[in-house]
């Protein structure tokens, strides 16, 4: 049995880690500064995180590339896998992000605009390097639509269909971000996670809504996620990664201590 992973997420805007609710917008002043990305990454590295996700959350909206200098600073100090995303549009962008210290790249808006980027990236760098990140918003019971540009634009895609297409093209992992649950601390969207876990053959990472340790457990147990991602509860020190791992292991989950 593969161990379940605990992944803190660094949402970076203008070189700082920020947090909001329901994909709050930087341009509207809806984000709160929570710290320096390198220092936070080092903290999570020492606390026993299994991976770190680094998202440049305004790169696609602002039409620029990911902040490589920040990524390089994080990678120099941390010795756990790093996934980086935001503003990655070409194979050269993927190459640069990997050279800057990332182990995997996260594709979202660019993949929606140019699905062949998933396929080309998987062929050149390997499926294990290509993560398809999906921003989802519930439209009706058991129906979620995919949004792009940091949750700003609705697309024609339904979430499960897009995830299956991404895997078909070569994505080696799916990160499912619930816009509705983001920052609300009311739990992950279990129905959304479960719907994907049952339909795709690659690992599914649950994101959005963690407020207490039980929320992580339910996403892994009932949602059948392979990993759980969170930001605010870790940044604010409300949940310690070591304590969370102990709790999940005591519930019988396969956790790497």
TrEMBL record:
<dbReference type="GO" id="GO:0016829">
    <property type="term" value="F:lyase activity"/>
</dbReference>
<dbReference type="InterPro" id="IPR011060">
    <property type="entry name" value="RibuloseP-bd_barrel"/>
</dbReference>
<comment type="similarity">
    <text>Belongs to the HisA/HisF family.</text>
</comment>
<protein>
    <recommendedName>
        <fullName>Imidazole glycerol phosphate synthase subunit HisF</fullName>
        <ecNumber>4.3.2.10</ecNumber>
    </recommendedName>
</protein>
<dbReference type="GO" id="GO:0000107">
    <property type="term" value="F:imidazoleglycerol-phosphate synthase activity"/>
</dbReference>
<dbReference type="GO" id="GO:0005737">
    <property type="term" value="C:cytoplasm"/>
</dbReference>
<dbReference type="GO" id="GO:0000105">
    <property type="term" value="P:L-histidine biosynthetic process"/>
</dbReference>
<dbReference type="Pfam" id="PF00977">
    <property type="entry name" value="His_biosynth"/>
</dbReference>
<keyword id="KW-0456">Lyase</keyword>
<comment type="subunit">
    <text>Heterodimer of HisH and HisF.</text>
</comment>
<dbReference type="InterPro" id="IPR050064">
    <property type="entry name" value="IGPS_HisA/HisF"/>
</dbReference>
<feature type="active site">
    <location>
        <position position="11"/>
    </location>
</feature>
<comment type="pathway">
    <text>Amino-acid biosynthesis; L-histidine biosynthesis; L-histidine from 5-phospho-alpha-D-ribose 1-diphosphate: step 5/9.</text>
</comment>
<keyword id="KW-0368">Histidine biosynthesis</keyword>
<dbReference type="InterPro" id="IPR013785">
    <property type="entry name" value="Aldolase_TIM"/>
</dbReference>
<keyword id="KW-0028">Amino-acid biosynthesis</keyword>
<dbReference type="InterPro" id="IPR004651">
    <property type="entry name" value="HisF"/>
</dbReference>
<feature type="active site">
    <location>
        <position position="135"/>
    </location>
</feature>
<keyword id="KW-0963">Cytoplasm</keyword>
<comment type="function">
    <text>IGPS catalyzes the conversion of PRFAR and glutamine to IGP, AICAR and glutamate. The HisF subunit catalyzes the cyclization activity that produces IGP and AICAR from PRFAR using the ammonia provided by the HisH subunit.</text>
</comment>
<dbReference type="InterPro" id="IPR006062">
    <property type="entry name" value="His_biosynth"/>
</dbReference>
